[in-house]
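Q: I'm a student working through a structural biology exercise. My instructor gave each of us a protein and asked us to get a predicted structure, then write a short paragraph describing it. Mine is MYND-type domain-containing protein. I'm not confident about reading structure output yet, so if you can add a plain explanation after the tokens, that would really help. Here is the sequence I was given:
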Amino acid sequence: MASFISPARRRFDENQPIYFQLGGVQSRNVLKDFKGLTKKEIKILFLNCHDLRNVLQTIASKTSKNGPLNIHLNHSCPFSLARNVLILKVISATNFNANCAEDFRYLWDIWYNVEWPKKTLDRFCKDVKELIDMGLPEHNLDFDGHQLKDLKDVWGNWLLSLTKLTKSSEMEKVLRNRLEFIHSGGRIGKEMLKSKAKMSKTPEPLIIEQLVSKLATGMVSGDTPELLKNKLTKEIKRYYQTGSCNPASTILKSAAVNPTLLELKSVWSLIKTPRWRVDLYSSPFIGFLPLPLDELEANEEDIAALHCQKMLKKFVASYRQLKNKINFHFHWSDNLQFCLIGTNEMFDIIDCSTLADEVGLANLIISVSPRLDHQSSDALMITESSEYWCAVASSIANYVEEALCAPLSMIPSLYGVRLAHDASLGSNQITSKGNAEGFPDITLTWRKTPQFENVSLGFSPSLEHCLKNLEKKCYFMEEKDKSFEKNKKFFRSYTPLTYYYMVKNVVSRSGNPKSLQDNLLKTNHSKGFSQFTITQKAIEAWANDRPVTLVTAIQPFTPDIEDLFQSFFRAPMLRVMVIPIDHLQIEMENKKDYIIQWIKKYPDVHYIENFNLSFQEQDANLISPTLRVSFVLPKEHRLKPNHCAVLIEMFSGCVMLSLGMIEDMIQETIIKSTSTKKQLSTRPETGQQDSFMEAENCQESPKDFIFNISIHTKDVPKGLNVSSDQLRPCEAGHKITFSIAEPQGVQPLTLCFPYPVLVDCIDATLRRADRSIQVVLKKALNEPWPYDFNPKPKWDVDKFKLWQDLNPNDTVSELYTHVAVQKGFQRLKNYLGMDVFGNSAHLPEVRLLLPMEIARNTIGTILMQVQTKGCEFFAILKAPAPGQALSSTANEKPLFFIRAHPPILSSPFNGPMILLSVLDCCLSEKLVKKGQLKENNAKEDFERIFHPRNKKTTPMTLWTNIEDSTSLLRYVFRLNSTKMKPSSWQEENLPLGKCSPYLATFLSPLYLDHFPAKGLNSSNQGSEQFTCAGCGKQSSIAMKRCSRCKTMTYCSSACQKTDWKKHKLMCSDMEPASLMFSLEVE
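A: Happy to help. First, here is the predicted structure for MYND-type domain-containing protein. I'll explain a few features afterward.
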């Protein structure tokens, strides 16, 4: 398209940019989860790369044995890109030495400090002049020639601005502007902040105090001593007040203000004086958090700055050692545009961790994931979502499903990616230090998945449901229903083009392009709203390669528009509205309502969500600067001559700018260029064969794939055989092959599915009469993915540190806290005593627990038993049914035998973990029956491992309740086994192999994704919500419990009687005798 139109909604960032020169998120090594480190060449894309910390930390993890790194950095803001190039020039210079105090002070000043001494100023001017005169450093650095000219303009503006920024009066003005910007709330703006303060009954704390408190909360990993916390708080506060993060002993007299942290007058900005526009939460410290407690110089005053400087020196030193193997490629482009049409490169890793909140997670994945190298199973992308995700969902898994409008098990088919770490298992770290409310930012790693092969994705009810959910978010209406606030905050960037790109991606992977695309576009609910008719027709025309009209409105940059851009464009989201001019005039003359619901008053308005907004500087061909707005209409749009276009604020409907009459705008017919490259077919080539098999459209649901295979042959087919690409010990596979013995000559048919299926649960029925095979494939929901069994680098547990309580004198051990945090402090009734979980007294509660609660309680019990009582042997059995005597389970075979290997270790996530050797009893029996395991060998191994002569081996009994709970526990055991190498003892003693029932694994807490921090305070435990099992009524007032099982709560005797028919099936008269917490409420 002549003018790129993004699937993400337009924002006002073009005219009110907020810079993240100091970084916007914690820095990370993006190679951490990448398993293809032995590749000859690794390509990494840092999308929306604010600064170089992620880049340098990633390079620092590389070794000289690895091949070269090709690093691409893209940013939509030229100022951030110009800074990155300058910093790279500085640290690449042959005479730069990070261990030289003067050299490092210069680098630190440029990167982080607002005020500079004379030496820094002189050296900066010299380096920038060299960039302007000689261009980029010759060493391994590439940039588009046209864009390099624009960067030179930025560097030139820096030097020009220093004629003012070296004057004391101008320096004071900038510093004052910085404080005003911070106190005004940054993005919010002064006027809105004042209005908010008037509406609020209680004054809020000063913004600096809020910022300091927020940053200090997550500053250190582990419990922070009070003295250290006070020092850190004081240091952070000094930075926000002064803009300096140098140790106090090194502060020199100021000679200039850092121009790289300011917005200056340029092609992209109309301001007349320099102003501060660095994001409030962007600070020198955030990229290095959390600070490791054991590495801090607690006796120093500037603890955080000294540690951050130490880390940066380390990163820079590593880069200088390896710089001959690093190639940089800089790009300046809209981030989604770069991935969709701006490059043909395929990448092993894409770090887009700063974009999910800005453009929407769905927009990000559908735009970026196609740039992952499809030939590399190790390729991955990284996203991050801010702490406010908790307003959308109650867990990370729910957030992903809500943001992508699909269950986790259907995301591979719809988006072509899957989460590298199972979000349904909660968090692997305690999340209570995210912010004051206990909700952390979340980082998600995504891997590419296989696509459908030789089978087409059909239009199923589940697929329709997912796409309809997405449509509701893409076609945003004005009515304030229950989902209004949620849509406003988290799905405001979704647009009709989001839906179109999603359909396009699904179709490209489905193998049935035409019919599926038609079905998906036909189901669009927007047809029920006339306001989206034009948008829908334009999208359908574009999807079917028909011409459309690109409409461009050009407005001279008048003083009124300039004032609008400078002062009042504070709204977060825009839409173009096409409306008859007389309707618009009525509203403009009326001006009664600030919030205008256009569609209720004027049903003939049209909304256009996707457009391009740009500012073009004055040049030889232009009398004055202009504002250009471009959008697409169907070629036959049938708008009347009296229709005009305006920019409105999305949520209030307020008119921001009139664009003029449609008929007066520039209109250009454009046709989508069709690629001559043949699309890879997902169906087999049948050629001239008389006999062949062909899979019909596959109906996908969250749990399975269902389809038929037609056998095209004259003879009756016989002898069905099914095989797979399964590699033991994995029990799942992506490819399933179907073949028949008769008639001969019919080629086997191999199908591939994005989500792996359970090989032992394939249901395939040969129907001879109609010459077909009816197939049901169950998804491997509780089995690690085949990729997870890949023999790539794994944890060496023999080198892990021992777990230690940081405060051994506390009345409650830190281990107990980690165990308890799995459940949240407000759900004590489900702890079941923690260290006496296996006691039969707890059977009534066990029967009521959900599978995840069973898993968490089992983990907690094993950890506590190992630590406090030295217990090493456990057996997991299925709990007896209600009313069934406990003695009836005496002859029951355990589901799992477990041997724990003390001591407890510290996991890579700084939590407790215990190594386990696990015998899967059901799998052992299955292998013996199949002849893959000799019964005598199985008995000998069991006796040797679980009945050693020198140990007391009576196992502690733990209970599970339903099949789903057992399946989840087994999944946790198997998944954890893929993350670690067996310990030395396990290597020597366990009969591990492809057909072994034994697992060398571990357990560590499965923490809640989030919970209110106030739950850590026992004084708040009384705020627990009680739910009546009879009528469902909820109340914070304590309800009475069933007198027999002590678990179910009721608001009245009537409700208890009503519920008794159902409850008596689960109720037991075995009352809990020794619970750690009292359950009965009188």
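A: Here are two points you could use in your paragraph. The mean pLDDT is 80. The two ends are 71 Å apart (CA to CA). It's a good idea to check both against the output above yourself.
Q: Great, thank you!
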